Amino acid sequence: MTIRMYDLAGADDRRRFSPYCWRVTMALAHKGLDFEAVPWRFTDKDAIAFSGQARVPVLVDGDRQVHDSWTIAEYLDETYPDRPLFDSEAAKGEALFIKHWTERVVHPGIARQVVADIPALLHENDVEYFVTSREKAYGMTLEEVVADADATLPAFQTSLAPLRETVKVNAFIGGAAPTYADYIVFGAFQWARCCSPRRLLAADDPVHAWRGRMLALHAGLAGKAVGYEA
Amino acid sequence: MTIRMYDLAGADDRRRFSPYCWRVTMALAHKGLDFEAVPWRFTDKDAIAFSGQARVPVLVDGDRQVHDSWTIAEYLDETYPDRPLFDSEAAKGEALFIKHWTERVVHPGIARQVVADIPALLHENDVEYFVTSREKAYGMTLEEVVADADATLPAFQTSLAPLRETVKVNAFIGGAAPTYADYIVFGAFQWARCCSPRRLLAADDPVHAWRGRMLALHAGLAGKAVGYEA
User: B177 contacts in A (CB within 8 Å)?
Assistant: First the structure.
């Protein structure tokens, strides 16, 4: 039975823009598993009620249901040990560090650049939920969140230094080949790319080149996704 | 022949306070190798001239000379493969990321707290070199660098979030056991501890508990070092 993943989509079914779902999409492709990425919207709570979850990604593999992108990665390595996402215990521990770095540094930094571009791409049922919940979290309008985007872009780019220095030396964070740490960080950039035409990376930034290598992986899976060229 | 490592020392030969040398000290202990950590000062250029280097750590192992803490770690894993510092290629790639995070986030953050405490601990020959070179790099006096230490401490602690979230879940960054990524980050905290009585971590911070585990490793090697209880 084909694996199903509930995957956040915009008004266009093909626009998939969750950084967490992109981690799982890339992980499934990494393992060469067949899967169906089922479009899901923020307000489709009923569609994943079976899982007890209110958010995606949710993975359904036969009679197993797994949620949370990190737990899904662990599940995939346990169940399908070929082509591991974590090639050692230390690699997994360090990937957890990189996950938290991504969520503390990269996600907020990208949101300050692109979050106001998201509502226009959402399914009409999702717009109010998205705008209201995000504006409440920020304590300001989405337009206010991105108002100083040009001014904050250099600091965001500087904050990527650990990634930049790593991918100057190695093709991927994982070395010569990508591992789950790469997919975690890449999910953030793919989220931006699928939501916004805004350019976050200079063309000569080693992070830009790494992102290009990520876009080309697995027969160009991410590169062919509906989004922008940014 | 016993391995020798040239190791930055203060006026007291026993005070070893280089974050980079601590990485190597912990790595040598991790592998259970006998070594002599030769005290060295910033102005002892002649003592390591044989290596072509002006800075430590420099490792001498028989007729091999190795410098740069990262290169030394690679050398140790190649030469003494038991008890690896990097247990996989991905673990090594990710450790490189954590190295750059440490040097971009942790080192500058700690320096803003403790750098003015260092001159009093230095060998008299080193004081002028240290103060002049650091004040030139900062463009201000060392007292000015730490003038707002109390005000910047919370932001420093917040910047440790990726480490904190990781060691909440696992005993070490590397998982159940320490690997070189742990030694890299720990070197920064041990540098602070050997230089300054200033408390950088709250007693209930998971980073504090992790540092305690690091201090206890290898028969308490780092915990017994000349420094402060901070």
Answer: 89
Report the distance separating Cα A67 and Cα A69, nearest Å: 6
Report the chain B residue with the minimal C-alpha distance to residue A165. Answer: B100
ipTM of the complex: 0.97
| pLDDT of amino acid B230 | 65
Q: Helix, strand, or coil here: A6?
A: strand
CB B79 within 8 A of CB B28: no
How many angstroms separate the Cα of B142 from the Cα of each of A164, B12, B188?
30, 22, 18
User: Please, what sign has the CA dihedral across residues B203, B209, B211, B217?
Assistant: positive
Q: Report mean pLDDT in 10-residue bins for chain A, 230 residues.
A: 95 97 98 98 95 96 97 98 97 98 98 98 97 98 97 98 98 97 98 97 98 98 92
Q: Stretch B68-76: mean pLDDT, rounded?
A: 98
Alpha-carbon distance of B41 to B54, in angstroms, equals 10
**Alpha carbon distance A1, A100 (integer Å):** 33
Classify residue B219 as left (phi > 0), alpha (psi -120 to 50) or beta.
left
A108 touches chain B (CB under 8 A): no
pTM for the structure as a whole: 0.97
Residue B50, C-beta contacts closer than 8 angstroms, at least 6 positions apart:
B65
Contact A75, A59 (CB under 8 A): yes
Nearest-angstrom CA–CA distance, B128 and B132: 6
Look at residues A150, A145, A227 and name the one whose alpha carbon lies nearest to residue A190.
Answer: A227
A contacts of B181 (beta carbons < 8 Å): 90, 93-94, 97
Q: Give me the torsion for CA of B84, B5, B105, B77, rounded to 10°.
A: -20
Taking the Cβ of residue B219 and every Cβ of chain A, the question of whether any pair is shorter than 8 Å is answered with no
